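Explain this record to help learners:
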Amino acid sequence: MRDIVYFQHTDTIPPISGQNGVDYIVKIMPNDNLFIKVLCAANPASVEIFDMMPGQVGNMSANNLDILGYLVDSNGNINLPTVGEVHVAGLTKEEVIQMLQKEISKYVADPVVINVRILNYKITILGEVNRPGVYTVTDERISVPQALALAGDLTIYGQRHNVQLMRIENGEKKFYYFDLTSPNIFSSPNYYLVQNDVLYVSPNGTRVRSSTTNQNIPLTISIVTALLTIVSLFIRYK
């Protein structure tokens, strides 16, 4: 039972304040696809050139969201019409809004950048979960428990003590581990996932042993069948 129950012994840790004990701020990364909305009350037509998606994001199909928007290149830049290259990687959305408003103001009088969103905020969940796959996070904020819930929770064979997080940080692969049976996960700096994170749930010993056994059964049956055939032929022609 201790290997299955989540968040045990919560009465032994002090209360966690704030955002579950960690500060979570979305930052723009290379390969993000950004929706940018610019308005200008005095002259709406002057900012139409920046609007790659007329209307609201919520009205767009998934396919349109993948191909439209401003793609952050490998150097962390986006290419705005008229303005040119703007470096956005490593900035928060609020910082991007302020910077874009300043840059666009050089070419348009009184523009207002009202929204920046990451269109391709996705996470991948693999291993011993009921629905492994790639999931789009529409609100750009998801915790480890929420992500696992999206995948239908762990199977009974998943290791609660050994959930692995794979993340790209500054171009390098980093690996972190969670113990879902411990409440310490709530104070982890990695409690909230970032875009392109991969969660992997390792199989427990029972699953590994059953997998090995199941793979050997067909081979065993084939060998036994062959031996019985040989014995049968030997007896018949003896």
The longest strand covers residues 158-169. The chain has a mean pLDDT of 81. The two ends are 59 Å apart (CA to CA). The beta strands are 33-39, 70-71, 77-80, 84-87, 112-118, 122-127, 133-136, 158-169, 172-178, 198-203.
